[in-house]
Amino acid sequence: MRISIILLTVVAAFFVTTAVAADQWSRSVDANLTLAQTAYSDNWAGGEAGNLSWTFNSNSLAERKLCPKVHTKNALKLSFGQNHNQDKETKNWAKPTKSTDLIDFETLFNFTLGAFADPFVAGRLESQFLDASDPEKNRYLNPLNFTESFGVIKFFIKEDKREWSNRLGAALRQHVNRDVLVDPQADKRETQTSNDGGLEFVSEFKSPIAQERITISSKLTVFQALFYSEDDALKGQPNEDYWESPDVNWENIFTASITKYLMVNLYTQILYDKEVDKGGRFKQTLSLGLTYKLI
């Protein structure tokens, strides 16, 4: 219940900040929906089958100078998509599978003191709408990853539509995995939690190109853990020191506006977390669909 309250508070805070004193906030909400569909008659020869896939993406931003020395920026990224496939023989439609799923909210406060780098505090929530990793039970808004950080931030570019900032500081992370099946015979489930802390480096870049018809956004996050709550439980195991390796998350978004309501969106992500896999992981999504700027 406490986790649900925290999640609702964070999401509600984002929408409140975009509604209160709207004339003083710099706000943007870009949403797009892509859809692909194929269908065949029952007597079609060749073994093809119907398919339906759709993806929804939304990038929202609300920022404001609260006073001459305090600036806040709130960013919310939402993404969800599914694939629906038809059986070649029976023509029955299988259960839909996820193609993408993301909830990412971050709030940042930086304090302009006129020094080479300014102090900041930030909080981040990462989750997904549907956790389908357990075939016996769908878990919604799971897992939950919280990050609180503070340190110094430096803006190398700070313009109306172009921005490049680097920040370095200390960070604490909490990982919550709910309803984990620990005893299949007794159907016993429990909530598993862990936390770690260390140093975090974040570099963010955003700029329009090609007469502002294309926008490039890039975010690189590197986290080096210095302590881990499950360290003692891993003693003697082959992966006992995996948590000491840095975690890397590099996201890039290329958005090209073909017309006012038609766009091409390319999203790439490179992840490295040795506790999950000893090799790097790559994700790429290319979509062509309808887009609409709500604000």
How many strand elements?
14
How many domains? 1
- The average pLDDT value, as a whole number, equals 87
Compressed to H and E, one letter per element, the order equals: HEEEEEEEEEEEEEE
Strand arrangement across the biggest beta sheet = 1-2-3-4-5-8-9-10-11-12-13-14
Explain what this protein looks like in three dimensions:
The structure is a single chain. The protein is built from one helix and 14 strands; from the N terminus they run H-E-E-E-E-E-E-E-E-E-E-E-E-E-E. It has a single domain, classed as Outer membrane phospholipase (ompla), Chain C (Beta Barrel). A twelve-stranded antiparallel beta barrel has the order 1-2-3-4-5-8-9-10-11-12-13-14. The longest helix is centred in the first third of the chain and has 18 residues, at 2-19. It has one helix spanning 2-19, and strands at 26-38, 51-67, 70-85, 97-111, 118-127, 130-131, 139-140, 144-158, 163-183, 188-209, 214-228, 247-257, 262-272, 281-293. The radius of gyration is 22 Å and the shape is flat. A hairpin with a 7-residue loop joins strand 6 (130-131) and strand 7. The protein has 295 residues and is mainly beta. Helices cover 6% and strands 62% of the residues.
Short key terms for the protein model shown above:
disordered N terminus; mainly beta; 295 residues; two-stranded antiparallel sheet; twelve-stranded antiparallel beta barrel; 1 helix; 6% helix; single chain; 14 strands; Outer membrane phospholipase (ompla), Chain C
